Amino acid sequence: MGSTTAPWKQLLLNALQSNSHLRHSSYFQLATIGPNGMPANRTVVFRGFQDNANKIQINTDCRSHKIEDLKHWPFAEICWYFTDSWEQFRINGAVDVIDGSNPDSMKLQQREKAWFASSPKSRLQYLGPNPGLPSLGDQPDQGPSSLDPSAGPAAAFCLLVLDPDQVDYLNLKSNERISFSKKIANEETSWNSEKGDSLVSLTMTRSSSWA
Amino acid sequence: MGSTTAPWKQLLLNALQSNSHLRHSSYFQLATIGPNGMPANRTVVFRGFQDNANKIQINTDCRSHKIEDLKHWPFAEICWYFTDSWEQFRINGAVDVIDGSNPDSMKLQQREKAWFASSPKSRLQYLGPNPGLPSLGDQPDQGPSSLDPSAGPAAAFCLLVLDPDQVDYLNLKSNERISFSKKIANEETSWNSEKGDSLVSLTMTRSSSWA
Q1: B13 near B199, Cβ under 8 Å?
Q2: Which of A1, A198, A206, A209 could tie A189 with a disulfide, CB 3.0–4.6 Å?
Q3: Out of A24-38, A136-150, A164-178, least confident range
Q4: Bridge-partner residues for A98, per DSSP?
């Protein structure tokens, strides 16, 4: 199913391209729901699409609160605003939490792939007694100062994989709105898309975002 | 209670100041929970502190989905990332939804004040049959083309007021983390603050944000 390329994906790749000069263009906000029933929202880093398909990857620490949230209720909504092109993507779906104890060997391979795809400096974050700080720049290194580059995923390393069900796209320069919804029938995945102007409820949701 | 100035507020004012050259520095992501129990997340615009106290104001359209969300479950978490100073504020609390039918005359006055504080162009958004598009720049005007500047709030105009309970602050340049929690005793509001390093759970939450 993941091999069907979603129609919203090219829009997102274009936005990433046109904002790539901005370090923060790969950051988005991930909303989850805590075990206490409260909304939670934090910035995370886009780590690419899984196997170049449609699923969105995020690296995180098994000891983080968002893991607790997602194990309790495995749904999230991404809000990704591109500050240069004035585009917003709202992407919701179920999130698969893949830690070292995952019984699925394919998923363990994906976790290992994500580990080796991340920089040695960001890998170091997972080796301390507590997670280190994000590596966004010239901060002092956290945790251990050296890493065996051939060493596999640290126990604390966790891969999150969000499988998009709906994507709401807004372009504030072209005034374009598009709502994409996944449909699954007979094991086949397809995507419906509707222009905002034909979708009052979307229009409401969208416009009110900045109203 | 709102008159006690919170210790996190100066940090937020400083961040707004040091990022004020960026149009998007007044945008943040607001997470709510839909009636279907799903997390929702969208970009909104900071409209200032209520009466120069600690409560955060957001203007929105009564017809937007977030109103449905908040009437069903009146709690939200803001994630506000400042892209130039590398500071993140996570601010959660209850949200008061103030529309034209509010029985409290003080709140109706606050709604009117917020209406007149917003630009004529953004007021126009509320006058169409559906909400218009956000006014972030040189987009074509939406809805009616003229507005009586002395006319009071449109029926669709809604003021949201978030009353912060907890604020988690992260500075990625100084590696500083501070967690602020509101305490209310005998009608008195006070704020506790703890440095991240003494707060493992905060450390975990924070660091994992970008891990």
Answers
A1: no
A2: A1
A3: A136-150
A4: A159
**Residue B171: which of A142, A128, A136 has the closest Cα?**
A136
Nearest to B38 by CA among A165, A13, A116: A165
How far is C-alpha A43 from the chain's CA centre? Answer: 10
Rounded to the nearest integer, the mean pLDDT of chain A is 86
Alpha helices per DSSP H over B3-104: 7-18, 65-72
Give dist(CA A15, CA A28) in Å, integer. 13
B106 and chain A: CB distance < 8 Å anywhere?
Answer: no
For residue A41, list chain B residues with Cβ-Cβ distance below 8 A: 29-31, 41, 77-79, 90
Beta-carbon count within 10 A of B42 CB: 26
* A172 interface with B at CB cutoff 8 Å: yes
Q: Which of B42, B39, B48, B41 is nearest to B9 (CA)?
A: B48
Looking at residue B152, its pLDDT comes to: 95
Angle at B24 between CA B51 and CA B139, to 5 degrees: 105
Contacts of A109 (CB under 8 A, 6+ apart): none
Mean pLDDT of B58-64: 94
Report the gap between the CA of B1 and the closest CA in chain A (Å): 23
Q: Which residues of A touch B207 (CB under 8 A)?
A: 61, 64, 125, 130-134, 142
Tokens 């919804």, located at residue: A181
As given in the structure block, the two tokens for residue B155 are 């029926």
CA distances from A72 to A96, B76, B121, B203 (A): 12, 18, 43, 21
State the CB neighbour count (10 A cutoff) for residue B10. 10
CA distance A22 to B170: 20
